[in-house]
Design a protein that fits this description.
α2 packs parallel to α5 and α3 runs antiparallel to α4. 79% of the residues lie in helices and 4% in strands. The protein starts with a helix and ends with a helix. Strands 1-2 form a two-stranded parallel ribbon. The protein has a domain of 153 residues. It is mainly alpha-helical.
């Protein structure tokens, strides 16, 4: 009986060892399978990361390129905006200076005799900007220079004759009669030269007076036309640096309109 029990006990131990071995092998197999799965999972993860990096790298240039394109488009839009503004300013400038000048908003005559309307014209400005005035002044200057050149030439010849006469007198090469004749001739030439100078001076003075009269007549007529067309004022004062008027409001100044009227009238007369 004891031997049988021992035999059964050994068989039981062998069965337990077999069972443990089987469980151990199964656990190893399970661990190996898990390791393989982990390696595959890790490999898949690494591959996915690589793919994501490649995708990001492929997207980044496109993103940068898109950003550059946006910046370029923005710059182009800004430049186009600036160009439109500059073009608008140029158009306004041209329109402003190409449009005919309008009369100033001077208060019109009320009809009350006690409230006379006075407008002014600056004659200094007229002299600078009236085209005919400039032409007449140049003609007068040219004529004056011509007379001066003639007088200078005659005066130089007279001085030369006088110097030769003095040399001959000092050298005692002239007789008394020759000296008297030379002095008489020199005196005649001197008087003729002075008379010529006086005559030319009078000619220039008359020419200046004629120019001033012509300019003043033109100025009066132009101011009258401007006044009748726009203001109907009672008085038109001519003011300048030396006039008795110490102050005149620019509101009542019609100088620009008068100058425009003068130049337009002069251009029409040339046709």
């Amino acid at each position: 009986m004891e031997e049988q029990e021992k035999i059964q006990q050994k068989e039981q131990e062998m069965d337990n060892e077999t069972t443990e071995t089987l469980f151990s092998n199964e656990e190893e197999n399970i661990n190996e399978e898990n390791n393989v799965e982990n390696e595959e999972t890790f490999s898949h993860t690494e591959d996915e990361k690589d793919n994501e990096k490649e995708a990001i790298q492929s997207v980044e240039p496109n993103t940068v390129s898109a950003g550059n394109k946006k910046r370029k488009i923005t710059c182009i839009l800004h430049l186009a905006g600036y160009g439109i503004i500059v073009a608008a300013v140029i158009v306004l400038y041209v329109l402003h200076f190409s449009q005919p000048k309008k009369a100033k908003p001077i208060p019109l005559h009320t009809g009350d005799p006690s409230q006379a309307l006075i407008i002014t014209v600056n004659t200094d400005s007229v002299e600078k900007h009236f085209e005919l005035m400039e032409l007449l002044r140049k003609d007068l200057e040219k004529e004056t220079e011509s007379y001066q050149m003639e007088l200078q030439t005659k005066s130089a010849k007279f001085q030369e004759k006088y110097q030769n006469y003095m040399i001959n007198v000092q050298n005692n090469v002239l007789t008394q009669t020759q000296m008297e004749n030379a002095e008489r001739q020199l005196l005649q030439e001197k008087n003729a030269l002075e008379e010529l100078n006086e005559r030319y001076t009078q000619i220039i003075a008359k020419k200046e007076m004629s120019v001033q009269t012509e300019i003043m007549d033109s100025l009066k007529n132009a101011a009258k036309r401007v006044n009748e067309a726009n203001y109907n004022a009672d008085y038109i004062f001519a003011i300048n640096a030396g006039s008795a008027v110490l102050h005149a409001s620019e509101l009542y100044d019609i100088t620009d309109e008068v100058i425009e009227e003068l130049n337009n009238s002069y251009k029409k007369s040339k046709k």
